[in-house]
Structures are given as C-alpha cells and as structure tokens.
Design goal:
about 90 residues; mainly alpha; elongated
Length: about 90
C-alpha cells in the first residue's frame, strides 16, 4: 500500500501537468503527501517493523519482516537524495 501511494503521488505532476500546463491544481495534495505525510508514515512504519521483528522467533519471519523495510527506507533515502525527481523528467523530456 505504501509503495502504491508513493507511486500515485509521484505521478501527479506527470498525469496532471506541471506549471502553466497543469490541468488541475494538485500542489497542496502533492506537498502534503510528499513532504509531510509520507515521510512521517515511512518513519513510523520503519520503527514498527523493527520493533515487530524483535518479537518474532523464527529467523525466516524476521527476515521477511525486515525485507518489508525496503519500501519506507528506500523512500526516505530517495527523498533525501533527490526530493523532486519529476523535475528531472521535465528537464530531460
């Protein structure tokens, strides 16, 4: 679910246009989700997965739970390195 929301948010500028070409004003939704709600959710999810994995007894269950960290941690790292990736699409395209 988290990955789906991340993809949907990142597709807003591509699908609805950007700048003067925008068909709908999506800026409040994008900024609220991209810079406030998704980072907070990713951080809470990461902490919850780490705490939850401590209580698991099987190493397989623990490994599966920790592998779920890829999405929220990947989002936080990508947001830190490149906060507005869709700007690269406009510059290249």
């Amino acid at each position: 679910m988290t990955a789906g929301v991340i993809v949907a948010v990142e597709l807003l500028p591509v699908l609805l246009g950007a700048g003067a070409d925008a068909r709908v004003d999506w800026s409040f939704t994008y900024v609220s989700l991209r810079f406030i709600l998704l980072p907070a959710w990713s951080l809470l999810l990461s902490v919850g997965l780490l705490v939850g994995s401590i209580r698991l007894s099987s190493w397989r269950e623990r490994a599966l739970t920790l592998s779920a960290l890829a999405v929220p941690v990947g989002f936080l790292v990508a947001s830190t390195l490149n906060p507005l990736p869709w700007l690269l699409l406009r510059a290249v395209g």
